[in-house]
Amino acid sequence: MHNFKDLKFWQKSIDLSVLIYKISSMFPNEEKFGLVSQLRRASVSIASNIAEGASRSSEKEFLYFLSISNGSAFEIETQLIIANKLNYISENDLMDVIADVTEIQKMIYSFSKKIKETKNI
């Protein structure tokens, strides 16, 4: 079992979620149940799945939840690109947030790889 609060990528995913909430609050009202909802759920999903996976009794289960977290990060990236094409988010903001998302993706991947190598999974 891991202490998820000590994991840097969990901490960064919390910051990302707060950022997504702030950015999506500027979207048009008609997107409340569209992109806003999708982005927010996906951003919360990253940190939530890291935490849930860390509580599991096996490393294999943890890896499963890390995989789901990474999938949510890729969802966010896709949804932000769509938001940019709809002019809901500027190109500069898009690139800044995607840089944060990419960093989290890489950290999750590296941590997962380390678990697999260490535990021969």
Sum this structure up briefly.
By secondary structure, the chain is an all-alpha fold. The protein is 77% helix and 0% strand. The protein is elongated, with a radius of gyration of 15 Å.
What's the structural blueprint in terms of helices and strands?
Blueprint: H1 8-24, H2 35-54, H3 59-85, H4 91-119
Helix pairs in contact: 1-2, 1-4, 2-3, 3-4
What this model shows, in words?
The chain has helices at residues 8-24, 35-54, 59-85, 91-119. The protein has 121 residues and is mainly α.
Number of helices: 4
Give the structural class: mainly alpha
Outline, from the CA principal axes? Answer: elongated
Poorly predicted regions: none
What string, H for helix and E for strand, traces the elements in order? HHHH
Q: What does the radius of gyration come to? A: 15 Å
Give the distance, in angstroms, between the N- and C-terminal Cα atoms. 16 Å
Strand content is under 5%
Average pLDDT metric: 96
Helical content band: over 70%
Number of strands: 0
- Major sheet: none
